[in-house]
Each structure stands twice: as C-alpha cells, then as structure tokens.
Amino acid sequence: MQNIFKKILQAKEKYNSTIVFDSRLIKKNDIFIGLKSNNRDGNLFALDAIKKGAIFAIVDNNKLIHENIIYTKSIQSFIIRFIKFLLGAYKGKIIAISGSVGKTTIKENIFHILNNNQFKAYRSFKNFNNILGLQFSIMNMDIDSKFAVFELGINAPKEMDDLIKILQPHYSLLTSVEDSHIGNFKNFSNLFANKIKIFNSKRLIKGLINIRNDNIQLPKKIINKVKRINLENLNIKAHKHDIFIISLKNNNSYQKIYSDKDGIFLETAIISFLFLKLFIRKFSNKKFFYKEAILNSRGNVVNKRYKDRIIKVYDHSYNASPYSLKKQLIHFDKLKVTKKLCILGSIKELGNQTDKYHRSLLEDIKDLKVKRIIFIGEEFFKLRSSYKTYNFYKSYKNYINVMKKDLEYGKNIFVMGSRLNNLDKVIQHIC
Predict the structure, then answer these.
(1) Among residues 295, 322, 339, which one ends one of the domains?
(2) For 181-209, what is each residue's pLDDT tens digit?
(3) How far apart are CA 49 and CA 363, in angstroms?
(4) Which of 59, 120, 130, 232 to pair with 428, CA 20 to 30 A apart?
C-alpha cells in the first residue's frame, strides 16, 4: 500500500494532480477515487473518469480492469490509511479553525496573510468542513507547505472528536461560540463543550478562543495552552478609511489592521492578527486583512445594477446565528449611507429555543434607525401578529413577487439569515 501512496504523491508532484470524488469534475492527470455513499457507487464512474483524463482511478471492485485502475479491498480503509500516510509525511504545522461564525473568511484571510509573509501555506477547499470535506482537503494538501490551514464545522455532538482525531492540529482557533445549530446540542453548555474539543489535539502547541462571556471556564487540561479573548474588550482608538488602529488591553502599543472600507470585516482582521501572533512573532508587512479572502468567504459586499443606478448589497445570505445577525445588523445601522433596506431570514436549527430567539431579535431591532425591514421564513412569519409594523413573508418566493417596490427605494441593502431561507436567490433578483 505504501508504494501506491508514493505513486500517487509522485503523480501529484509531477502533474499537479487533484484527487477527485466526482467524475464530472475530472481534469487531465487528476486522480479519481470511487467513493461509495448510500445512493451512489463511485466504482461505476471509474472508467468514465479515465476516459476524461484521470491518471489513476482507485476502486474496490475487482471486476474493473484497466491499466490505470488501482484496486483496493475497501475505499474507506484506503482513504483513512492514505490520510495517515500524508499527515505522517507532513513536516509543517497544521492549523484548525472552527467557530459559530466567520470560519471560512478567517481561514482564507490567514492563508493569504501567511503566503504574503513568505510562509508557504495550504488551505482546505472552500467551506468543506465536515468529515468527508476534511478527508478530501487532506488528500489534496501540499505536503511541502510550511502551514496547512483547515476549517472544521460541526452540527451534532461528537463530530469534533472525529475531526480532531484525524487532523491533530498544532494550533487551533475558535472564532466564536454562539447559538448556531444549538438545536442539535439541546443547550449552550453542550454546544460549548463540543466546540472546545478543537483544543483536544495531542499535538496542540497553542490555541485562541474568542468568547464574550468572561465567566465561562475553560477545562483545566487546556487552560495553559489556550489564550482567551473577548473582542468587546478591544479598544478601537482611531480609524481612517480602511486602516484601523487598535490597542489591546494591557498593551500600550498600536497595531495597524487593514479591513474593508466599511469595517464589516474588521473583526476578521483582528482575530487573524491575534491568532497569528501566538506563533509568529514578526511579519514582513502589517497587513492583516486581504481582499482575496472575501472572494472565497461567505460574507461579501457587492454592487448590483438596478435600472439606471447601483445598489450596494451587504451579502451575508449563507448563514447566521442570533448573535451574528444582531451584531452585523447594528453595524449596518451605524453606517453613514442612505436609503437602507434590511432583508432578514429566520435562524434555523435552534430547536425548542426557536421562538425565544426570534422574539428577542424582533425586540432588539426596535431601536434601530433602519425602518424598512423585511422578515423571511416560517420562524419569523409565525410571530407576525405581534409585530404588525414589520413586513413578514413565509418564504423567499413570496417576497420576490413583491420586492420591486423595495428595490425602487433601497440603495444599500443588508441581507442575512440561515442559508435554508435561500436569500441568495433574493439577491440574484436584484438586477
């Protein structure tokens, strides 16, 4: 088996091959793995992958015969052993990033910071953060990189155990611990207990956690390795254009933080800076937010043309937690722009806390200056009789049919909510 692994590595190095599970995505000299799922047998697509240019196809069906086919008794066993081989051969440091919000943006940001400071880095694909996504990203990692940055996501108990068991990172970051997906964990205590398992790596050198509640105690076994911060304790001294100067508690020095000009990604920049300072003392430049990070992240600011004018869309349509929605909405409310419109989707996976959180959000926004607010999703829609001054729609389809009047009014539009609300399709209709 070792010879096969070495053969694959040689091919990757020589041809810059990508290991692929989906034969439809095969490019010349890629490597196909016939992964099985409940409704799909990847073996059936092996020969097609070879026809499309795959240099190898890994299968566990011994009836498939071709000079470019490599047979193994079990695809899943092959993947596990190959990953173990790769991680054993890797001489760099592994970084794991998780949290309720900001995982993808911060992962991309840290990757670009490292690369732009002459540290060769690799990062996991897109938002591939579950077990299969992690396996895919590890198999495609650049083993010559100095740092490998991986995003980890969990939706249920014990998932972090499995992710950390595989990856065993040297440095771990929790961007935040909020109420996202709390329904699967029953309560915040269980959610928190599972999130901080990211620090259970046997190889952990240092870690950073951003947590708002200063009363929450960290387990004794990690307390000496994990630095905790509360971004609300940071003191923003001055800002001009896209350069922010901050001072940290118990630190009189200043640090320039480059963010987007609207400041929406300021926290991203700060967390990136604080995390990297844990294990890299000096950087060749002082830039801690890269616009390239936005392009591969879930939050974005885009310009959309509507008739003869431009509408600026603050796009956070991929996902949200009660806390992140409230915080980003307050930030948008403070922006010195005109004709603001908010389109807010409901928060999913809150379990028996659903009504509580949505009522709280509706109460919290009463004092905002933004007056034109649209609520989309069944969770908000159920509460419409108690909040008759707002506009509620059961689904994005119901709103799209009547959104024209809002587009005539809105010049700056904030969109945020759980991805199951399909708010991205609402944004697509702004044109």
Answers:
(1) 295
(2) 677 787 888 889 999 999 999 999 999 99
(3) 55
(4) 130
